[in-house]
Amino acid sequence: MISQHSWQAPAINRKKVGDMTVTMLSDGYLDVSFELLSGIDGSRAEELLQKRGASALPRININVYVIQTRERTILVDSGAGGINGWSGWLQVALAAAAVRGRLLDRAASDNQAVSGMHFNLPTIGKVVRDSSSFTLNYDLWSPAV
């Protein structure tokens, strides 16, 4: 009998930074072109990877971060949401990372707002479609120029 996994356990990494807890969640990956890189020719990048025995497939990890303080929960990015078959594992990662249900539901039960930055529509819809009980505040953050 052959045993096959139907789903990979999500990649989760949690760190304490001062009074904050920062959790990295993997939403999966995106296959792209080396031509998106700057400072190196695509064929040169592929050659270097092959020399080292690494896959020459230009695969980018799609990571989402959850920053928790006593006052708020901040969701940084919303992943790719499974659009065009890319990733879409954020709901599973959120469920696996939380001690008391999904982080968004936990924030709602604690009467906290969830703030977000770098949300792409319609991918944010994939995050909130089953979690209508929390408040989502959009904060516009921009680096200093």
TrEMBL record:
InterPro entries: RibonucZ/Hydroxyglut_hydro. Gene3D superfamilies: Ribonuclease Z/Hydroxyacylglutathione hydrolase-like. This is MBL fold metallo-hydrolase. The lineage of its organism: Bacteria, Pseudomonadati, Pseudomonadota, Gammaproteobacteria, Enterobacterales.
